[in-house]
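Feature request disguised as a bug report, sorry. It would help if multi-protein outputs had a clear separator. Right now it looks like this:
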Amino acid sequence: MTKLLLVIAVMLAPASALAEKATYDLVRYTPPPAWKKVAWKKDVKDKNTISYTVTDKQTRTYCQIFLLRSTTSKGSVTADFDSDWKNIIVKSYAVKDPPTLTDTAAEDGWEVKAGVATFEFDQGTSIAMLTTITGYDRSVSIVAVTSSQDYIPAIQDLLGSVEMTKPKADAAATKPAADKPAAKAGAAKPTALQGYMDYNPFTKTWTWKLRYPPK
């Protein structure tokens, strides 16, 4: 099993806030903990998507996180990301602006790319985020949408817990391409999952920033 990034440290967190790892297809992750004592609603659709949803009726805010079952890669993480952004983000949420992107990062044969943009929903502004993980001829996408920056830590914590399992195949097929040397196990910190969204109240825009900028 390949760990995509270091799990975000939970300092002084109560035991009730910790959850056991769950597995969906090639992804092993920690489901989001209860939000203000309200459990996230888990839903599985057509065996191709698993989602977690939470709403706050008092503040009229929401957050949804989707994990999509892996598909055959289109050849690169950029091609996979662009395809999913067009077919999932743009079509589902009518996002008009191009995404703010992270640099592609790699570890042990997996590459990661993420992007974020805003869209109008229910007379307010929401955020749409797509994270694409590509490797070994497979591509996995994680989608998060929310109407409040209050849920950003929940999204980042789930992404920070992600571990990828190599698909079952013969050894020759799972070797990284010759022009893409594999990073040493545990050495890489994919920036796509180590970032955060920063809000500028003056321009009312979101910017994706790296939590651990490269030296």
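(second protein starts here, but nothing in the output says so)
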Amino acid sequence: MNILVVNCGSSSLKIQIFNMVDETSLIKASVEEIKGNSKVNIEINGKKDHLEKKISSHDGALDFLLKEVLDRKVISSLDEISAIGHRVVHGGEKFNSAVIIDDVVLSGIEDCVVLAPLHNPANIEGINACKRLLPSKNNVAVFDTAFHQTMPKEAFLYPIPYEYYEKYKIRKYGFHGSSHKFVAGRVAQILGQPISDLNIITCHLGNGSSITAIKNGQSYNTTMGFTPLAGLMMGTRCGDIDPAIIPYLIKKENLSVEQIDNILNKKSGLLGLSGVSSDCREIEDQAWNHNNERAKIALDKLSFRIKEALGSYLALLPGIDAIVFTGGIGEKSPETREMVCSNLDHLGIIIDKEKNKFKGQEREISASDSKVKVFVIPTNEELMIARETKELIK
């Protein structure tokens, strides 16, 4: 069984094809900058190819990539694709699990556009492109928000007038659900225990970051909120701040709503504090090799916010079996992992500094006397989407 996974952005389209017998990736490909001089990236068996081509639509991007799949003999016919799994950013309260897409589901995804105006329209374009180009195949929607629909009301409601939840569904939704679910499931495999018996804190740390408290295998609380702007400090996003800062800055700087939104989403976080970059690697280089004080402050703030969230989730859970680091920073920054886990001995969390000196691999980094297991597990959201698609169409 081969599953095609499609991930559409506003100006990009990414695909992978998985052979679900052994869960190997047959091809990974993407088109960036649709509607311009598009950049095409193709990876097969570790070999990478880069092309440039004018592609004007998501339909055109998918059509081009599918032709490349056949021309490069990844599969001999599109009939070998059993189904298509789509990453859909927002499912609101309508969807608490993956679903086979029909007209009713598509209408439900359209209803959630108001909650994710930058993402859901692109996801819908990808679905419609697949329906046109692969009309005989089942399409499955896998939602970033679905995993977090198990959160209780005390976790997801905001302390604002309840009528705004009733009228506009303003509440915490959470994101990165496929990533949190994937690494939590992998922890259960490693420990040889049912996921329903485990309490885990998963730390997805990258340009976008979120931490999730998983209680008995289900999301109990997560740092991202109504939008992905909430929670941790990120690459360019501010995360949680005093909301009174927003009207204060609007008045002081004579800013529009659009301008303040742009500042908080695209000019804050690591970029805003460091003045260097949104890329943690560049900031680490400036902090440690060039003695850049603002870069040091940014890294200190990043680890402080992660540790702050980690501590609050330790208090929420009845016990803790494992902590997981994943995402670009979580997998590839041993320095950040060490800063986050430092001085947590009193909570039974101790990492082995020698074990922690690596990047991008699956490993346990907890010390032998640590009461809590600490892991680094590379995430694979696309494989999680393929798994959920396979389960639905079986």
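Even a blank line would do. Unrelated, but nice: The chain has a mean pLDDT of 96.
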